[in-house]
């Protein structure tokens, strides 16, 4: 695969654009260190640097001879680098203007701007990582909670690769036995019988890994939780209480919330996006009506809806009709500090005024949004739609194998489905992958990764 790896020198910022103490500009490709030396205050020292060393100096404009910035350059020699090629990473001050000027000088001396994900693509093509680990790089960068980050790092360490590869090797053994009989039908070679129980077990393992996709997506993307209910039930007060800040306007006047307000919160590592919606009632004016329409759209899309009811008023027929129309409602019995009325079945008692009951509510929210099949510690969890689809394809092929063996179908057909299953697992790790798949996958990465 190495002959297909692009080797021209590329450069890109590896840290977000913005004011910071430091920024990192990453370069790689043939002659990267030599090209950078043309802009360096001590070019001979930089060219002589061995791999995994740091060189201190200044970036100098070769035309005006003006000092641009004082920097540290990390030098990596082929093949001991992230991409497997010669690399140099520039640690400079985090001024956006300064970073932009250094990039302009790099492009002037022969670097081109890196495409999104091109550094990781080169690492994959050089055999530094497989596709599951390459996807995990993007997932580590995108993680928004500690748990999401830990799961992504687990994938980066090869957990998904190891599980898929182990299953694939067992399937290859089954396939080899079938093909032995096909290749030597007239010889005195006894092909082993296909163990249906073994095929069933491998299919279950594949389906189990595919089922972790929902858990992985929730940890990576978060779950949408809408706060809905009639006006003046305490929705905005609950929203503010959950966030520990005054984000929504609280008023006894009906229709105060005209549009929805969204904010993220981590519930023991599960990212949840809470949305405060407009009170559900007959609107008094066009603006409020539009806010209510938008709120209903959010409610319909939410993974969970906290339906807040004023305990001093009780559950009305309108409340019952609204909750019956949505299968993912969790009732919140608010203002328990003002009444001793017991909550209806399925409602969480709460006082937004005192905060009593909020921890029980958050625990129930976490339980509701996290799938019941959430994998335990140490088990791989996938987040990639591509991986899920290929796992489902492999499982489907093995289901056909199981049916064919039980029905006594010709070994040719069995071998065909076994090859499909093995091929699907090979695509997951990148053993067999088209250029279109790679282009689509890496295009979602940030430019410097």
Could you give a short description of this structure?
With 449 residues, this protein is of the alpha/beta class. It folds into three domains: 127 residues, Gyrase A, domain 2 (2-Layer Sandwich), CATH 3.30.1360; 124 residues, Four Helix Bundle (Hemerythrin (Met), subunit A) (Up-down Bundle); 151 residues, P-loop containing nucleotide triphosphate hydrolases (Rossmann fold, 3-Layer(aba) Sandwich), CATH 3.40.50.
Describe the protein in words.
The chain is of the alpha/beta class and 449 residues long. It has 3 domains: 2-128, Gyrase A, domain 2 (2-Layer Sandwich); 141-212 and 379-430, tRNA modification GTPase MnmE domain 2 (Four Helix Bundle (Hemerythrin (Met), subunit A), Up-down Bundle), CATH 1.20.120.430; 219-369, P-loop containing nucleotide triphosphate hydrolases (Rossmann fold), CATH 3.40.50.300. The chain is 45% helix and 17% strand. It contains 16 helices and 12 strands. The strands form 2 sheets. The chain has a 6-stranded mixed β-sheet. A hairpin with a 6-residue loop joins β1 and β2. The longest helix has 25 residues, at 159-183. It is flat, with a radius of gyration of 29 Å.
The coarse silhouette is flat
Structural class: alpha/beta
Query: Distance N terminus to C terminus?
Result: 21 Å
Number of strands: 12
Strand content: 15-25%
Strand/helix succession:
EEHHEEEHEHHHHHHEHEEHEHEEHHHH
- Count of separate structural domains: 3
Mean pLDDT: 86
CATH class of the largest domain: Alpha Beta
CATH superfamily of the largest domain: P-loop containing nucleotide triphosphate hydrolases
Count of helical regions: 16
Regions with little confidence, pLDDT below 50 for 5+ residues: 247-258, 280-288
């Amino acid at each position: 695969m190495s002959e297909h790896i692009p080797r021209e020198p590329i450069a890109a910022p590896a840290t977000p654009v913005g004011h910071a103490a430091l920024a990192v500009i990453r370069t790689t490709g043939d002659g990267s260190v030599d090209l950078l030396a043309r802009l360096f205050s001590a070019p001979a020292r930089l060219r002589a640097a061995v791999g995994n060393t740091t060189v201190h100096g200044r970036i100098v404009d070769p035309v005006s001879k003006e000092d641009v910035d004082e920097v540290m350059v990390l030098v990596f020699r082929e093949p001991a680098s992230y991409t497997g090629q010669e690399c140099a990473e520039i640690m400079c001050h985090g001024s956006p203007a300064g970073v932009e000027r250094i990039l302009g000088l790099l492009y002037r001396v022969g670097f081109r701007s890196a495409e999104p994900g091109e550094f990781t693509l080169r690492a994959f093509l050089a055999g530094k990582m497989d596709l599951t680990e390459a996807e995990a790089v993007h997932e580590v960068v995108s993680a928004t909670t500690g748990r999401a980050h830990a799961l992504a790092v687990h994938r980066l360490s090869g957990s998904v690769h190891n599980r898929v590869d182990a299953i694939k090797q067992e399937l290859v053994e089954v396939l080899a036995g079938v093909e032995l009989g096909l290749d030597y039908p007239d010889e005195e070679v006894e092909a082993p019988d296909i163990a249906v129980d073994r095929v069933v077990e491998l299919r279950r393992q594949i389906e189990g890994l595919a089922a972790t996709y929902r858990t992985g997506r929730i940890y990576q993307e978060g779950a949408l939780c809408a706060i809905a209910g009639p006006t003046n039930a305490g929705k905005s007060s609950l929203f503010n209480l959950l966030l520990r800040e005054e984000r929504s306007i609280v008023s006894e006047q009906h229709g105060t919330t005209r549009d929805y307000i969204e904010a993220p919160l981590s519930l023991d590592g599960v990212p949840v996006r809470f949305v405060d919606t407009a009170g559900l009632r007959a609107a008094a004016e066009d603006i409020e009506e539009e806010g209510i329409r938008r709120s209903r759209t959010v409610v319909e899309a939410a993974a969970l809806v906290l339906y807040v009811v004023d305990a001093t008023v009780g559950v009305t027929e309108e409340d019952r009709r609204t909750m019956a129309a949505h299968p993912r409602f969790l009732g919140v019995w608010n203002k328990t500090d003002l009444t001793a009325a017991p909550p209806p079945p399925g409602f969480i008692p709460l006082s937004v005024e005192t905060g009593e009951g909020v921890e029980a509510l958050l625990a129930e929210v976490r339980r509701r949004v996290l799938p019941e099949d959430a994998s335990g510690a140490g088990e791989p969890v996938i987040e990639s739609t591509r991986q899920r689809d290929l796992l489902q394809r492999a499982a489907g092929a093995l289901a056909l194998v199981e049916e064919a063996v039980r029905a006594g179908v010709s070994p040719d057909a069995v071998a065909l489905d076994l090859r499909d299953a093995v091929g699907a697992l090979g695509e997951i790790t990148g053993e067999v992958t088209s250029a279109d798949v790679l282009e689509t996958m890496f295009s979602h990465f940030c430019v410097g990764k």
